[in-house]
Amino acid sequence: MDVMFDVNHVSFAHQNPGSLPHRALRDVCFEIHHGEYVSIVGANGSGKSTLARHLSGLLIPQQGLILVNGLNSKDKVNLNTIHQQVGMVFQHPQEQMIASTIEEDVAFGPENLGLSTPEIQERVKKALLDVDMWDQRTRAPQHLSAGQMQRVALAGILAMKPKCVIFDETTAMLDPAGRMEVLESIKQLRNQGITVITISHFMEEACLADRILGLAKGKLLFDGTPKELFTNSKLVQTLNLDKPRIFSFAQQLSKWIPSLNDPMTLEEFDNQIIPLNNPIFFRNLDSKYFSRNNANPIVESQNLTFTYMQDTPLAHMALEDITFSIPEGSIHGLIGATGSGKSTLIQHFNGLYFPQKGTLQVGPFQVNRETDFLALRRYAGIVFQNPNYQLFEQYVGDEIAYGLRLLGIKGPELRQRVMDAMNIVGMDFESFKDRMTFALSGGEKRKVALASTLALNPTLLLLDEPTAGLDPVARNEILNQMKTLNKNGKTLIVSSHQMEDLALLTDHVTLLSEGQVVASQPSEQLLSNHKLLEDNKMTAPIAAQMVKILRQKNWMVPENIIISQQLIAAFEQLDEVKDVRV
Amino acid sequence: MSAFEFSQNLSFGQYLPLDSWIHRLDARARIVGYVSLLMAITFTSHFFMILSGLILILLGFQISKVPLKYVARSIKTPLIFLAIIAFLQFFRFAPDPTNQLIFALGPFTITINGLIAGAVVMVRFITLILLISLASYSLSSSDMIYGLQSLFKPLNWLGIHSEDLILVIQVTLHYIPMLGQATEQIAKAQASRGANWGIKKQNIVQRVKTIYPVIIPMFLISLQRAENMALAMDARGYGSSSQRGSYRHLEFKKKDGLFLIAVLIFSLVIVIL
Fold it and tell me: Residue A357: inside a domain, yes or no?
């Protein structure tokens, strides 16, 4: 096979004004052949994106060299060809849209190549047909779902007839359906013989590749198959990664199902389980494995309705007739496709919006035009989806002190409360208080955002996509902090696309679709209802998907399992039964 | 209305994808036509000429099928300022034999000419607002981009890169709603932590005090976004060919010519008479 990328002793450092340069890549060497499917993994800040930008000619190596299809990226003459041959889909779909309609946006690349009008039109049509967006070509990009936008971004690259497409954390902000759309597109690209490189924090996605490159602190520590990487626990730890859930759950199950041989994907798991001739029946799980909460409601919403841009041509109804309640002291999940109204609903709970119709009771507050919003917002603190949009002070210490200062808290008390808030999120006061907020990593920014809300000691904590874009280690830290906060008496409302997180955290989940409540049920009931989830563009957590496969093969595991602990517990109960029989 | 929907009051950029005779005209004819009307109404001094312009634009609304109620909002907001300006015009002239005095209060005199001047100001502004709204409701930003691209092409002979100029306009158009969103986000974040956003009964000083802290982070975020966008453009080969291609091929038909000639003559008549 021909070599697509020849990366030869490449080093690169980002210049940081006022401090030492950050060495993002250190002496990296590898080759990628035409038609390969490679995934690059590593913790936040390990140099993955810097590497991807080198491959697409957006960055030029400071040391060493890169040959793209034989062309040296250091030679400026080659850059145009490299840009045409290597396309890139980025994390934030909105920021890569340039034109005001889909078709024109897709045309941007071919227009840059200076092609004739009929040629451009033909390419745009083909690319949009390929990603199944031709019907929507005259719509504005901002009216699409995030998954659709990523497909349009991909079409924009396909129209340039690339030899390789790089997906740089393309799925991080997408809902489960959007993620499936992107993965489906990747499959199609492979069938056409296009080289695919993905960067992802989802180990399950990384496992779909033929080959994995593992980066840590700018060094290439691993180059091999997914299986070689994840069966080496020590390496997984050095790279600050997590095992793919399917693999780690299956490892624990192999005690009972010996035919399991380190499956990395659901497909492999399915293939490795031999159907039983006689079904094995399991006992239902004890109620201690499910969290229950029967306290009085802290949030109660009756027929809540809200329309954006009311009375304008752009009016659009975001919430319709929302009726549900959340008990005090619980962790409550909100799920639903992009644009289903989760964020709008959450922003009602702290009075950023108030109901246009219907009623909303949050703690002691009746939320309407007359509410004391300042008091309500102290009672219900919110942490937004993108930490970049909620940090506005220069220094971490000032950021966390912002709300406290507005309350008139000064001097030693202010210092103490900032320190306490930073303690809760596990940040050292002395070493972080004078750090610049804009220079923090994604995980650190999220912790600061959480701390700055916790500093005000809210009773109710609202979290919008708290783990999106985080690497596995940072994600686990945030999840643990959320659990601790809940144990200490706070009620949490979490909106998320990460079914795994919700399965671990929540006792109750509400599913929204197009601004309406589809279901509000105990987590294990809703998150194991495959049909309901799929009908609403969601997918069940991995443990639940494994249960579905097991049941098809006559392992009649209880259906309401959504996390690995419950799955293992079910199998352990099986042993107890056997022991009794013996 | 919520305190955080900043883009709600912009009538600019609210294109309505309707199928009307005006919507189907060549983009270049519409751009030149609207601009010439805009100039004519701005520079004419005669009350009846402005009024005939107003009638023409109302006719334009009729033909383009854009409901007039959508425009009501963009007139309502500045109405109070317009009224004040018009009111001040009443006192502009001193009475003389050709200019009859209507009412006098000490040194302040309201005359016939003053009243006319006030009415001119009022009607002129309303006409202009209507015209701009009509333009933005019937001219999509892509019409505008491809129209301007074609209109600016002669600039290349002068050594000016018209494509770059167009791209600047394109990115700006794309950026305005993005800035609105960024501002909204920061305002919400600050409000959630106790800033006075969306709280009633504030005087102007308090309002300015709440707006000020939003500005710096907004610029930072805009710069970050601009950087990401530049990267995305670079990745898609912007600037790789000296001659950019064009997705659309604009066709100038007979009806476009007729429309343009009619509008140009009308504009000329308004200004000269």
Answer: no
**CA gyration radius for chain A?**
25
Whether residue A96 and residue B232 make contact (CB cut-off 8 A), yes or no, is: yes
Residues of A in contact with B241 (CB under 8 A): 80, 112-114
Q: Report the DSSP beta bridge partners of residue A332.
A: A493, A508
Q: Is residue A69 in some structural domain?
A: yes
Specify the number of domains making up chain A.
Answer: 3
Please judge whether B193 and A438 are an interchain contact, meaning their C-beta atoms are less than 8 angstroms apart.
Answer: no
Same structural domain, A441 and A574: no
| One domain, residues A423 and A516 | yes
Same-domain status, A484 and A571: no
Average pLDDT, integer, range A326-334: 94
With CB atoms and an 8 Å threshold, state whether A56 touches B235: yes
To test the contact with chain A by mutation, choose from B197, B236, B238 the residue with the greatest count of A C-beta atoms within 10 A, namely B236
pLDDT for the residue numbered B221? 80
A237 and A255 belong to one structural domain: no
Q: Give the mean model confidence (pLDDT) for residues A310-339.
A: 87
B1 has pLDDT over 50:
no
Q: Which of A56, A115, A456 sits opposite B193 (nearest CB)?
A: A456
- Which has more confidence, B259 or B200? B259
Considering only alpha carbons, which residue of chain A is nearest residue B4?
Answer: A352
Nearest to B25 by CA among B143, B137, B104: B143
A46-77 pLDDT per residue, tens? 899 899 999 999 999 999 999 999 999 999 88
Residue A64 lies in a domain: yes
Complex confidence, ipTM: 0.82
Q: Which residue has the tokens 């006409």?
A: B127
A123-126 LR contacts (CB < 8 Å, sep 24+) = A123/A159, A123/A160, A123/A161, A124/A155, A124/A159, A124/B247, A126/A158, A126/A159
The answer to whether residues A199 and A134 belong to one domain is yes
Q: How near does any CA of chain B get to the CA of A60, in Å?
A: 13
Nearest CB among B8, B16, B243 relative to A114 is that of B243
**Last residue within a domain, chosen from A197, A223, A243:** A243
Region of poorest pLDDT, from A235-239, B187-191, B199-203: B199-203
Residue A457, phi-psi category: left (phi > 0), alpha (psi -120 to 50), beta (remainder)? left
A88 touches chain B (CB under 8 A): yes
Encoded amino acid at A363, one letter: G
Mean pLDDT (chain B, rounded): 83
Structural domain span for residue A427: 335-340+373-540
CB spacing of B246 vs A120 below 8 angstroms: yes
Is pLDDT at B208 greater than 90 in this prediction? no
Task: Calculate how close chain B gets to A59, using CA atoms only, in Å.
Answer: 10
Read off the pLDDT of residues B67-90 as tens digits, 9 standing for 90 and up. 888 777 778 878 888 888 888 888
Same domain, A438 and A561: no
| Closest Cα in chain B, distance from residue A88 (Å) | 7
- What is the mean predicted confidence (pLDDT) over B181-205? 77
**Predicted local distance difference test score (pLDDT) of residue B19:** 85
Size of interface A-B (CB pairs under 8 A): 185
A245-253 helix and A542-552 helix, angle to the nearest 10 degrees = 50
Per-residue confidence (pLDDT) for residue A362, from 0 to 100 = 94
- How much of chain A exceeds pLDDT 70, in percent? 98
Structural domain contains residue A345: no
Whether A413 and A498 share a structural domain: yes
Which comes out higher in pLDDT, residue A453 or B70?
A453
pLDDT tens for each residue of A224-256: 999 999 999 999 999 989 999 999 999 999 999
Q: Tokens 């220079």 appear where?
A: A439
Q: In angstroms, rounded to a whole number, what is the distance separating the alpha carbons of residues A507 and A302?
A: 21
Contact criterion met (CB below 8 Å) for A190 and A196: yes
Q: How many CB atoms lie within 10 A of CB B98?
A: 8
Distance CA A238, CA A48 (A): 16
A563 shares a domain with A467: no
CATH number at A523 reads 3.40.50.300
